[in-house]
Amino acid sequence: WIGLSVRMSFDRQGISSVQAIARDVTERHELERLKDEFIAVASHELRSPLTSIRAALSLLDGGLLESRPERAKETIALASRNAERLMRLVNEMLDLERLESGSEVLDRMPYELAEVMGQAAETVAAAAEAADVLLIVRPTTLTACIDPDRMLRVLVNLLSNAVKFSPRGGCVWVAAEKGPQGGVVLSVRDQGRGIPAGQLKSVFGRFRQVRASDSRDKGGTGLGLAICKSIVEQHGGEIWAESREGEGSTFRIRLPR
Ligand code: ADP
């Protein structure tokens, strides 16, 4: 709030009103700073796949197809993987923006949790099989008032992360239990590498990944958990992670009654 010309008077009301203006301006500066930071990180994230696509095109333009057809095939495959990544990044950034701007309202209805848990498990079944991970859906008769499509997206994100970070032969569980005051708690547990204690909160931030190599090796964008958090908070709920490094992680979602 530098640059604000205010005269502080020492009666009680005066001071509180000066403080109110100051807080408002500070919050606006913080929002602007976060927006600038987001744009800087987002453009960096978008630039790397684009650079790789451009390099591939320039190699092909230089006659790679004729001189080394096998190498050209690999180059095309790499460019196509990067184009897919670009698409995923743009789609997830737009989804997050739409969710956070509040332009889309939830379509909530009483829903069987077993149903959405089963659908989520089906969606990641092929990936789990390829990674040799056993998916276990714990039976439940609980219901909750949710937007089924959005909650499906949350569970699919959590389950695909759990599969991605599991060792071969590992298990992933998805379960629902009664929560406090008539609410429910959904959980997704894995036996993977775990998350360091200092990063249990920050992994829900945009473009946050525990290891810099996670986007390359695991194909992630670092936006999945930020999307989950936004959807869960729109439901009036809370999401958090618990973990023991080297033993696994559990992501929990508490939904109010
Ligand atoms: P990504 O697309 O990279 O998976 P997310 O926002 O879903 O993005 O996750 C952010 C990061 O949190 C991941 O890159 C990874 O470092 C860490 N993470 C998420 N889920 C798990 C998990 N089940 N086990 C270990 N690390 C995880």
Automatic annotation (TrEMBL):
<protein>
    <recommendedName>
        <fullName>histidine kinase</fullName>
    </recommendedName>
</protein>
<feature type="domain" description="Histidine kinase">
    <location>
        <begin position="41"/>
        <end position="257"/>
    </location>
</feature>
<feature type="domain" description="PAC">
    <location>
        <begin position="1"/>
        <end position="37"/>
    </location>
</feature>
